[in-house]
Design goal:
alpha+beta; globular; 12% strand; five-stranded mixed sheet; 445 residues; Cytochrome p450
Length: 445
C-alpha cells in the first residue's frame, strides 16, 4: 500500500505494481473491486496508472460535491474517457469540455425544461402503449432487452416525430448496439487497438458510425425542407439559436447532439426500468401499493404520484445507472487533508455513496418510503443518480417522465412475479442488469 507523502498528500491506495496486479480483478468485476477497496481505505483511495497518472476514487459525499459542484471549474471530462467515444459518437454535450460544452449546454438546456417536455408526453405515452401491446407474457421472460428496445424507440420517436420504416429502426438499433459494444471492449481492453490495422475491426465500426450520420442527415434535410409544424426534440435543436450570434447549429452539430441524446438517454433509462421491474416483482407490497395508487388519475397524473417518484428514486439509489463518473483536474488541488497534482483523474463512485451504511439506514433494503418520510433526501448530498453541478444530467425530467409513464402503463396491464433468479450486475459504461427474468401475466383483456 502506498500513501504518497511527497509534495502532494494523495489518499492511501495502490502503487503502480499493485494497480497492475489487481487490474484483472478490477476489469472482471469493477463494482466488487472498488467496493472492497473503499472498505479498506475508508471511502477514498488512489490507484496508479503510470508514474505520472494517478486516479483517486471516492464515495465521500463531501469530496464528490467538491469536485462536481464547489470547484467544478477546475475539472473537465478526461480524454481517457471521452477521446475514443468521440470517434464514434461525435462531440456532443456528454463528451465535450470548456467553452464549446458551455455554449452547447446553454443552447440545449431550455428544451429540456419540464414545461417544454410536455409537448413530448403524447409521443412517449403512445410509443410505450404500442410496445406494451406486443409485450410477451409467460414464465422467465428477460425484460432487459425489451426495456432496452422500448427506451430506444421512445428516444427515436421523441427526437423525430415521424414514421421511420421498421427497416431503418432496426438498422439504427443494430448500429447503436454494435458501436456501444465495440466502445466498451475498446476502453476495457485497450491492447485490442494493436490489432485494428490487421483485423480492420475499427474501420468496420467507423463505417457504421458514418452510416448513422448519413441516416440522420437525410432526416434533418427533409425536416429543413418541410413546412409542417413539429414539437419533437429535433425541432427544438434546429430552432435553437446561440445567444451571442443568433445563429443556429450546423447539421454536423445537430447530429452530434442527436447521437449524444440517444447514447446518454437510452441505456440509462432501460437499465433503471429493468431494475425497477425486478425490485417491484421481488417486493410485492411495494408493487401492490403502487398499483392501488394508480386507481385514480390519468397516465399524465402519475407524474405527481409521490409513491411512484419514491419508488423510482429508491431503485436509482440501489442501482444507479451511472454508477461512476470521472473528471480530470486542470490545476493542482486539495480537499480536506488530501492534495493532488493537475491531471489527476477523480472518480466519484455513486454506487458506493448510495449504499454507504453511515449515510443510509438499512442501506441494502428496497424501501421507497424513505423518500416519502424525508422528502429532502432526493435532493440531498448523499444522492446523485443524475450527477451534480453544471454537468448534471440534462435529460433527468425526460427520464423521470418516461420511467413513470412506463411503470404506470405496465402495471395497469401486467402482473409480475420474480422467477427466483436474482439478476447479476454488469457494470459496463452503465450499470446493466444481467438478465432480469420475470413471470409476466396480462391482467387486462
Ligand atoms: C435513468 C436515466 C438517466 C440517468 C440515471 C442519467 C444519469 C446521468 C448522469 C449521472 C449524468 C452526469 C454525468 C457526469 O457528471 O459526468 C448525465 C449526463 C447527461 N445525460 Fe443523463 N441520465 C439518464 C437519462 C438521460 C436521458 C433520457 C437523456 C436525454 C434524453 C440524458 C442525457 C444526458 C446528457 C446529454 C448528459 C451530459 C450533460 C452534460 O455533460 O452537459 N440522460 N446523465
Amino acid at each position: 500500500m502506498d500513501s504518497e507523502k511527497k509534495k502532494y498528500n494523495l489518499p492511501a491506495g495502490y502503487s503502480i505494481f499493485q494497480t497492475a496486479f489487481k487490474s484483472n480483478d478490477f476489469v472482471s468485476n469493477p463494482i466488487k473491486f472498488i467496493s472492497k477497496s473503499m472498505e479498506i481505505f475508508s471511502g477514498t483511495y488512489t490507484a496508479t496508472l503510470g508514474f505520472n497518472r494517478k486516479l483517486i476514487l471516492t464515495q465521500n459525499q463531501g469530496f464528490i460535491n467538491y469536485i462536481l459542484k464547489e470547484n467544478h471549474r477546475n475539472y473537465n471530462k478526461s480524454k481517457l474517457a471521452t477521446e475514443r467515444a468521440v470517434a464514434f459518437f461525435g462531440k456532443g454535450l456528454l463528451f465535450s469540455n470548456g467553452d464549446y460544452w458551455l455554449r452547447q449546454r446553454r443552447l440545449i438546456q431550455p428544451g429540456f425544461h419540464r414545461e417544454k417536455l410536455q409537448g413530448l408526453y403524447t409521443i412517449i405515452i403512445n410509443t410505450i402503449d404500442d410496445y406494451l401491446s406486443v409485450f410477451p407474457t409467460g414464465k422467465s421472460i428477460d425484460v432487459y432487452p425489451l426495456a432496452n428496445q422500448v427506451s430506444f424507440n421512445i428516444l427515436i420517436q421523441s427526437l423525430f416525430d415521424i414514421q421511420l420504416s421498421p427497416k431503418i429502426m432496426e438498422e439504427l438499433s443494430q448500429i447503436f448496439t454494435s458501436l456501444q459494444d465495440f466502445l466498451i471492449k475498446d476502453i476495457n481492453q485497450p491492447f485490442r487497438r494493436i490489432f485494428y490495422p490487421f483485423t480492420g475491426a475499427e474501420n468496420v465500426e467507423l463505417k457504421k458510425a458514418a452510416r448513422l450520420r448519413e441516416i440522420f442527415t437525410g432526416i434533418i434535410n427533409e425536416r429543413r425542407a418541410s413546412d409542417k409544424n413539429y414539437t419533437d426534440l429535433l425541432d427544438m435543436l434546429l430552432k435553437s439559436r446561440y445567444e451571442d450570434t443568433g445563429e443556429a447549429m450546423s447539421n454536423e452539430q445537430v447530429i452530434d447532439e442527436v447521437l449524444i441524446l440517444i447514447f446518454a438517454g437510452h441505456e440509462t433509462t432501460a437499465n433503471t426500468i429493468s431494475w425497477l421491474l425486478y425490485l417491484l416483482a421481488a417486493n410485492i407490497g411495494a408493487a401492490q401499493k403502487l398499483t392501488a395508487s394508480f386507481n385514480t388519475g390519468t397516465v399524465e397524473d402519475c407524474l405527481n404520484n409521490d409513491y411512484l417518484k419514491a419508488t423510482i428514486n429508491e431503485a436509482m439509489r440501489l442501482y444507479p445507472a451511472a454508477y461512476v463518473t470521472e473528471r480530470v483536474a486542470l490545476e493542482d488541488d486539495s480537499f480536506e487533508n488530501f492534495s493532488f497534482p493537475k491531471n489527476t483523474i477523480i472518480i466519484p463512485f455513486f454506487f458506493g455513496l448510495h449504499r454507504d451504511k453511515n449515510l443510509w439506514d438499512d442501506e441494502l433494503k428496497f424501501l421507497p418510503e424513505r423518500f416519502i418520510d424525508d422528502a429532502s433526501l432526493a435532493k440531498s448530498k448523499n444522492y446523485f443518480p443524475f450527477g451534480a453541478g453544471p454537468r448534471m444530467c440534462i435529460g433527468n425530467n425526460f427520464a423521470m417522465a418516461e420511467m413513470s409513464f412506463f411503470i404506470f402503463l405496465f402495471l395497469k396491464k401486467f402482473s409480475i412475479k420474480p422467477s427466483g433468479q436474482i439478476p447479476g450486475m454488469r457494470p459496463l459504461i452503465t450499470l446493466r442488469p444481467d438478465k432480469v427474468l420475470l413471470d409476466i401475466e396480462c391482467i387486462t383483456e
